[in-house]
Amino acid sequence: MHSIVHALHSFSLVSVTSIGGALFLQLHPLVQAWSHDMAHSSHHFKEMAIQTLTCCYGEKAFLLYQHILPHLLEILGQAGVQYLHVNTLMPASDILYDQGHYHRAAELLEIALEKTRKSGYESTLELRVTEKLAHAYQGEEKWKEAEKLYLEVLEQRRSQLGMKHPDAIEAAAHLASTYYSQGR
After folding, report:
1. pLDDT of residue 18
2. What pLDDT, on the 0 to 100 scale, is given for residue 158?
3. What domains are there in the chain, each with its CATH number?
């Protein structure tokens, strides 16, 4: 990565700026135009662009993703998200959720859940997708949908891990939060 940035910098196609302790790459308008044109060209390029935008995601990168969010939303708007891999959909949905785009995160997670259920992915992945989708529904205040999914997660966690396992207790807490939000 450093050698690529150095080469681009030597041609004045990219500059590096530090803002609040974080490094930002500023792309020359020609590079921006090229990447925009490429984003309209192929499904594989769009998926690769989404993977690139989401690869550094973590709690410490929240401010960075405020800047990246418009680009991610643009590419997702162009991409046929139903063709994206589950491992591409998941981090994109995390970013959208953390930035308050619960509905868009839920759309991606619904596709991811459908893919995991149809293709026979490992049950732990399906369970993670189910839980994330429940969180997104809760963010949208879709309490009944969240409740249904949280119940699934709780049943799976209790049967796989036992009632006293921290993950099962956390699943019960999420369900309780949903009940509380419904006044139950």
Report:
1. 76
2. 94
3. 1-41 (no CATH), 42-181 (1.25.40.10)
